[in-house]
């Protein structure tokens, strides 16, 4: 007896439009999880759909200065934070070594970062070091609701939930800033949105600020613009270009999390697929290395001839996006720029092409050109949309063009420990610096602090550093205790 298997035309099935689907709103969508989960990635669909702004919530101790999805998730969030702490040794060491000294005593830190278990460890470390904190999210999709609840339960004012609208996003930042009810003297920003909002809406707060610590390339670009225009009112520390951020968070974190984000959202097989990575900075290098290791055929686009030459030497074909956009299966942006992928590219992509972004903000993909009446949006699963053309062709857009790894997966705690410790050290440096050490400009973290942050993580990896002899140190003209490289050294 012959078993006959009938195979449907997959391409025809994939292009077929559902018969019972309404036109999706062209405004910002809110991500919902398809499962009842308290995990770090999903949000649970069992909750009511009302906005947290419309609900009055209190902690078990009556604290109410917060706005989150559901305070009842606090216990789950606390477990997430405890798991993250195990992979964030430097912050734990910092608590033990400096907790008694309270180097941030009197500091009032206004923060706007991703609200995850790892950043929660940072926030609670700052409090152990003496600071008071208020926090909002820098991304509408990356907040772990249970973690936000755990922070609120500990009496930390936090204003964020997963799936905020654009209006919610700015409302949360405004509530976090506190107006005249809370006067911050330090800012910890990721992307520059908080700094921008204070400059625009609460400029009087700058009078008491001692400094700004900024993590992302987007935020640093904004700060340098302010500095160039003579409008930067306080000193700012550029964490993004510190060695411990560039070489570890940007490179190694993205090297692992790009695969996690793509797998969780699309179940894509990497081997044999043609992929183009736009940008070969540290993020692009990490993405390309990971994709190549799993057998993908990787192309690179670059504007910088030095980065382009590096890509060539690493075995990647450097091309223009327009040359391969018709044939690639996946397009990944990581340039920090705007309009890297525009409507012309999107129109030429083949059916089923996956489009995503590993940069900080959603400006790299021209989303506005996709929010038109002739294109139909279809939500497939959390953070996955089909954008469907009139002829039935569709592309797969992940996280609405926002940061893929933190929107769709998780990131390694150990790498974030390095970045978070660098941020903490930058805050301590700016806050405790004597008057006059830092002017109204943008500064890099002193190399000695970069080396200190790195050294705190070596014991976890059972690494033993060789010590210079006095003779060797004298020969090199450096201290045997560092710094070991000049400021101009390129790692």
Map the helices and strands.
Blueprint: H1 10-15, H2 74-86, H3 89-98, E1 108-113, H4 117-128, E2 132-137, H5 145-153, E3 158-159, H6 166-177, E4 186-189, H7 193-201, E5 211-214, H8 217-228, E6 236-238, H9 243-266, E7 274-278, H10 282-293, E8 297-301, H11 305-313, E9 317-318, H12 321-324, E10 330-333, H13 343-348, E11 354-357, E12 376-381, E13 384-388, E14 394-398, H14 404-408, H15 413-432, E15 442-444, H16 447-458, H17 470-476
Parallel strand pairs: 1-2, 1-4, 2-3, 4-5, 5-6, 6-15, 7-8, 7-10, 8-9, 10-11, 11-14
Antiparallel strand pairs: 12-13, 13-14
Helix pairs in contact: 2-4, 2-5, 3-4, 3-15, 4-15, 6-7, 9-10, 9-15, 15-16
Structural notes for this entry:
With 491 residues, the chain is an alpha/beta fold. The chain contains 17 helices and 15 strands. α2 (74-86) crosses α5, α3 (89-98) packs parallel to α4 and α3 runs parallel beside α15 (413-432). The termini are far apart.
């Amino acid at each position: 007896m012959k078993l006959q298997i009938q195979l449907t035309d997959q391409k025809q099935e994939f292009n077929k439009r559902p018969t019972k689907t309404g036109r999706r709103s062209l405004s910002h969508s809110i991500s919902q999880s398809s499962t009842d989960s308290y995990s770090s990635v999903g949000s649970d669909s069992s909750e009511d759909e009302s906005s947290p702004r419309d609900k009055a919530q209190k902690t078990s101790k009556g604290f109410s200065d917060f706005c989150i999805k559901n305070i009842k998730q606090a216990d789950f969030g606390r477990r997430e934070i405890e798991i993250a702490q195990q992979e964030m040794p430097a912050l734990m060491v910092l608590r033990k070594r400096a907790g008694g000294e309270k180097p941030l005593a009197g500091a009032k830190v206004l923060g706007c970062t991703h609200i995850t278990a790892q950043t929660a460890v940072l926030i609670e470390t700052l409090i152990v070091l003496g600071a008071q904190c208020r926090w909002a999210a820098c991304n509408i999709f990356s907040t772990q609701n249970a973690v936000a609840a755990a922070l609120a339960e500990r009496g930390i004012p936090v204003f964020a939930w997963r799936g905020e609208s654009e209006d919610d996003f700015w409302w949360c930042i405004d509530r976090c800033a506190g107006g005249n009810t809370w006067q911050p003297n330090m800012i910890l920003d990721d992307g520059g949105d908080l700094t921008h909002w204070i400059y625009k809406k609460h400029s009087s707060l700058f009078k008491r600020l001692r400094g700004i610590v900024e993590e992302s390339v987007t935020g640093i670009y904004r700060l340098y613009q302010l500095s160039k225009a003579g409008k930067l009112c306080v000193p700012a520390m550029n964490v993004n270009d510190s060695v411990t951020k560039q070489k570890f968070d940007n490179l190694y974190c993205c090297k692992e999390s790009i695969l996690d984000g793509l797998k969780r959202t699309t179940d894509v097989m990497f081997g044999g697929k043609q992929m183009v990575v736009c940008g070969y900075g540290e993020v692009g290098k990490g993405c390309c290395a990971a994709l190549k290791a799993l057998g993908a055929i990787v192309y690179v686009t670059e504007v910088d001839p030095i980065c382009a030459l590096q890509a060539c030497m690493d075995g990647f074909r450097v091309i223009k996006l327009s040359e391969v956009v018709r044939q690639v299966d996946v397009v990944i942006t990581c340039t920090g720029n705007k309009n890297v992928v525009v409507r012309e590219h999107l129109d030429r992509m083949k059916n089923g092409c996956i489009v995503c972004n590993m940069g900080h903000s959603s400006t790299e993909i021209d989303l506005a050109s996709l929010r038109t009446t002739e294109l139909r949006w279809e939500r497939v699963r959390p953070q996955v949309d089909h954008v469907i053309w009139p002829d039935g062709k569709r592309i797969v857009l992940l996280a609405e063009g926002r940061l893929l790894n933190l929107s769709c997966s998780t990131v390694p705690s150990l790498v974030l420990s390095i970045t978070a410790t660098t941020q903490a050290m930058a805050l301590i440096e700016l806050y405790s610096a004597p008057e006059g050490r830092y002017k109204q400009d943008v500064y890099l973290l002193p190399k000695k602090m970069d080396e200190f942050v790195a050294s705190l993580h070596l014991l976890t990896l059972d690494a033993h550093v060789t010590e210079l002899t006095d003779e060797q140190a004298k020969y090199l003209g450096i201290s045997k205790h560092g710094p070991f490289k000049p400021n101009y050294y390129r790692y």
